[in-house]
Amino acid sequence: MFLSVASHELKTPVTAALLQIQQAHRLLRRERVSPELAGVMQRVAASAASVERLGSLVGTLLDVSHIATGKLDLERKRFDLTESVTQVAARLAEAADRARCPLEVAVAPGIAALGDRLRVEQVITNLLANAMKYGAGSPIALALERRDGVAVLTVADRGIGIAPEDQVRIFEPFERAVSARHYGGLGLGLWVAREIIEAGGGAIRVESRPRQGSTFHVELPLADLAGTAPSRS
Question: pLDDT of 27-46, one tens digit each?
C-alpha cells in the first residue's frame, strides 16, 4: 500500500517538472546559439534526461505495486499498432540521437492489435530504452509485421548481448544479466513488460549472443474490424 501511495504522490510533480524542462529546452533551441547558451542547453538536456529517468522509475514502482496486489488492469480494445510503434519511435528519436543509436524503423502499415494501447507503448519504450543503454553507439532496428496470425514487434541492438543462461532469468523480478555497478536500473523493466504482454494474451522472448547484440520479439494478438482477435487457421 505504501509503495502505491508514494508512487502516485511522486508521479504528478515529476511529470510536471519534466514538461517544464522539456519546454525550456525547446525554447532554447529556437534561439541563436552562443557559447554561453550552448552550455545552458546541454545542462537543460541533461536535467530533462535525469527527470525522465526518475519518472520512469516512479512508473515502474507503481506497476510493481499493481502486479504484486493483482491490480494490473488492462484494456482489451482494438488499436492501431502501426501508429503506436511509429509514434513511440518519433518520441524517442532525440534520445536515440543522444545515445548515438540511430533508429532504423521498418513498420508494416495497417496492423491493428487487440490490447491496451498505452501499456503496449510502455513496453516498446522500455525495450528501446534498454537497446540504447546496452547498445550505445550502434543502430537499433525496430520492426513490426504480421506473421503466423499475430503481430510481431522486434527490437534489435548490436550491443553487449546476453549469455544463453541469462535469457530466461532476465524476465524475472530484480534479475539482471550485467552488474548494476556498470549499468543502472532496478532489474524490473523486463519483468513488468512480460507481465503486461502475457496478461494481454501475447508473448515476449529474446534471442542474443554475447558481444553480438540482442533481439527482443513481442507477439501481440491481431484484431479484426469488429475489435476481436481473429481465430488462427
Answer: 777 766 667 677 777 777 77
**Residue 170 is which amino acid?**
I
Number of other CB atoms surrounding residue 59 within 10 Å: 18
What own/partner pairs with CB < 8 Å and gap ≥ 24 does 126-129 have?
126/189, 126/190, 126/192, 126/193, 127/155, 127/193, 127/216, 127/218, 128/88, 128/89, 128/92, 128/96, 128/103, 128/155, 129/56, 129/92, 129/95, 129/189
Closest Cα to residue 142, out of 159, 122, 123, 128?
128
pTM equals 0.74
Calpha distance 179→103 (Å, rounded): 26
**Residue type (1 letter), 5:** V
Q: How far apart are CA 77 and CA 229, in angstroms?
A: 10
